[in-house]
Write a structure and sequence with these properties.
5-stranded antiparallel beta sheet, 11 helices, 13 strands
């Protein structure tokens, strides 16, 4: 894929001190840290490493990555490593994609209580694997989780595998009702335990009666729960998961133009058949929206549930594989789990012959300066 013409780091540099002078009140040391690592990512400030091709001997020097989970440049390798590790854990069966979304009325409360609301969103959802996304295509607050669920499950007593022949094991309308009821009940519990913060226009909700009145309209409309029909086998599911696991709010490849303090980026209009459109924002507004989706320190956005939970996986996964092998109702299109994991491939290949590059030396920022070519005579002091 060709290099994008602009990066989020370029937007930060363009904003300069003006953004920090008019920064929003919620701007914290964590947001400053994210901006700093994005600026330093793959620059001499983080040091670098020398690599050599194991086939032809070609050598190259590269800058180190920041590896921050909010950085648009650092997620591809993390995604590849995650997919390689998860490949052996997929079952030879079909999978269902479920998306559970909070109504927009709750977005301001979620932004002020990210850890509590996002954790409650995970607790209220279904499925064996979930990943949190907190944004929409316009970078606005839009908390939702993507769940990938096997189209079937263990029977009571774990004596056999039951394959689902329907769209999902529960009708979507039932899922909407259950999810809404459990989530609102969780909000009431958090409020009663004084675990929610209220600032600005939400300060009035500290009063229990005002909070209860604010919750009542949430039952007047159905919440958004989307379930796709079962798709493919384990290999298809593995490729599909890679689209959601390590996304950040916006990728550098969506940036189109940066000039006169304005940034233009592409976005997908789902209300009009996913038509590609352009949006132009002041750089300060773009950074404000980008920073809305910085997660609290230590918050886990990829989680496992049920028999795929870490504490149960060692015993449950072999049992599921055994019962699926014995079942006569395994879908014909499903592929064996052992074929789901692609063979490990090098994260960086030689530009000359395509062979794997191997690390031969780590370089500090000072060593990188020593290795840099001298300045032209016209630029020397």
């Amino acid at each position: 894929m060709p290099r994008p013409p602009f990066e989020v780091a370029d937007v930060v540099r363009t904003a300069g001190e003006s953004f920090f002078e008019c920064r929003p009140k919620w701007f914290s040391w964590l947001h400053l840290k994210v901006l700093n690592v994005i600026l330093r990512c793959r620059t001499a400030a983080l040091g670098g490493h020398a690599d050599a091709c194991s086939k032809c001997g070609h050598e190259a020097v590269s800058y180190n990555s920041c590896r921050n989970r909010h950085c648009p440049k650092c997620q591809a390798n993390a995604r590849d490593r995650w997919l390689q590790a998860r490949g052996k854990e997929l079952l030879p069966t079909r999978y269902v994609h479920v998306v559970i979304t909070l109504p927009r009325q709750l977005a301001p409360l979620a932004l002020q209580n990210k850890r509590e609301i996002y954790a409650l969103l995970f607790r209220a959802e279904i499925g064996f694997f979930s990943v949190l996304h907190a944004w929409n295509q316009k970078l606005q607050a839009h908390p939702h989780v993507h769940c990938v669920v096997p189209a079937g499950g263990l029977a009571p007593g774990h004596s056999r595998w039951i394959d689902s022949q329907q769209k999902f094991f529960l009708p979507v309308d039932v899922l909407k009702e259950v999810f809404r009821g459990k989530f609102v009940d969780g909000l009431r519990t958090l409020h009663a335990e004084h675990k929610l913060d209220f600032h600005g226009t939400l300060a009035v909700l500290r009063n229990p009666k005002a909070f209860a009145a604010w919750l009542r309209p949430l039952f007047r409309f159905p919440w958004v729960v989307y379930a796709k029909r079962p798709f493919g086998g384990a290999q298809h599911a593995l490729r599909y998961l890679g689209q959601y696991t390590h996304r950040v709010a916006i990728s550098n490849h969506r940036l189109v133009a940066l000039a006169d303090g304005m940034i233009t980026f592409r976005w997908r209009d789902s209300a009009h058949h996913n038509k590609k459109r352009l949006m132009t924002l002041p750089v300060n507004e773009f950074l404000r929206r980008f920073l809305l989706h910085v997660l609290p320190p230590g918050f886990v956005r990829i989680r496992y549930f049920g028999w795929m939970a870490h504490r149960r996986r060692g015993a449950s996964l072999p049992l599921c594989l055994q019962l699926l092998a014995q079942s006569a109702r395994v879908p014909a299109e499903a592929e064996p789990a052992e074929k789901a994991a692609p063979s490990p491939r090098p994260l960086w290949t030689c530009p000359q012959c395509g062979g794997p590059m191997v690390l031969i030396q780590r370089l500090s920022s000072m060593e990188l300066r020593w290795r840099s070519p001298p300045l032209p005579a016209s630029l020397q002091p």
